[in-house]
Design goal:
heterodimer; A: about 210 residues; mainly alpha; two-stranded antiparallel sheet; 5 helices; elongated; B: about 100 residues; flat
């Protein structure tokens, strides 16, 4: 390793090798987590696809209103939360702390709104008799298992994201975290948004009546 | 900001344009769903549109376009390879489908 690629920044003056990607380790760690999590969601969506294809009597229960309309609203809410998140990152890097905190608050609000809309839909389905392994329409009981499994895992990610954004915002406000922390958190939030871009068409739109 | 070290900082205008593009793609997906396409055709269209959406989100919102190319080439081909390796079980799903279809 050439001397130019080393810098002295660590405690005790030990030389530190420059990142080959030009990013901080926490950001690289987040990217690695995202790739691993994308494989997880990929596997669960492939399993859903297998079960759907292998069951010709697969139930297609979703009406345009309320389910698909609700799904469209949820999608717009989540996409908008990605926009507020990039605004928060831009403001944090521009050292406009109050503005960044407002955008982070808006992102959390939209994340909670998404979760509330999702839970409203779930409870409506529970009211119709849907359960994890019960199909009130008489088709494959695996519909409930895959639907609640896929959307539940995504919802868990959304709720975790809201909590993490809240913790990062609190630390950023106190000066404990910097703009790089906000940017690293934004990667996770955009990933959650990205997963929904596959869940909505595959789990909702492919199951309309 | 590591994403802007190359001096090509994405602007809020660009982010808003990407957001509008993503909303439009969702609208196209819903429109196609109610166009009574064959299930296979609809699935192919929805997957293609979802991949475009994902690419826009990764490249712009997640700033991968503005990072060093080494990051892209270290992460994305691996993910594509992993997802392709999951494709081995489709023939079995088709076999089960044919077994369960009337007269299959």
């Amino acid at each position: 390793m050439g001397h130019s690629a080393m810098s002295v920044g660590a405690p005790h003056g030990f030389p530190v090798e420059e990142s080959p990607y030009g990013i901080k380790s926490k950001k690289l760690a987040m990217w690695l987590f995202i790739i691993a999590d994308a494989s997880t969601f990929g596997a669960i969506l492939f399993a859903y696809g297998f079960l759907r294809l292998a069951n010709p009597d697969w139930t297609r229960p979703f009406a345009f209103s309320p389910t698909i309309v609700n799904g469209i609203v949820m999608t717009v809410v989540l996409l908008t939360s990605s926009l507020t998140m990039v605004a928060a990152v831009a403001a944090a890097h521009a050292r406009r702390q109050a503005t960044a905190l407002r955008w982070l608050g808006a992102t959390m609000f939209l994340g909670l709104l998404f979760a509330a809309l999702h839970l409203k839909e779930w409870f409506a389905m529970f009211g119709e008799g849907w359960r994890l392994f019960r199909n009130p329409l008489g088709g494959s009981p695996l519909f409930g298992a895959t639907f609640f499994g896929v959307t539940g895992l995504h919802l868990l990610h959304v709720i975790c994201g809201v909590i993490v954004i809240g913790a990062i915002a609190a630390g950023f406000r106190r000066g404990r975290f910097d703009a790089d922390h906000v940017e690293t958190t934004s990667l996770y939030w955009h990933f959650v948004d990205l997963v929904w871009m596959f869940v909505f068409p595959l789990v909702y739109l492919m199951n309309v009546r | 900001m590591t994403a802007t070290t190359a001096g090509r900082a994405p602007t809020m205008r660009l982010y808003v344009l990407v957001w509008i593009g993503l909303i439009l793609i969702v609208g196209i997906e819903v429109f196609l769903t109610y166009e009574r396409l064959a299930a296979g055709t609809l699935l192919a269209c929805l997957l293609a549109l979802a991949l475009v959406e994902a690419a826009l989100a990764v490249m712009y919102f997640m700033h991968l376009k503005y990072e060093r190319p080494a990051l892209f080439w270290s992460l994305i081909p691996y993910l594509i390879f992993a997802l392709l390796m999951m494709d081995h079980f489709w023939p079995d799903a088709l076999r089960l489908m044919r077994q369960r279809l009337p007269g299959g």
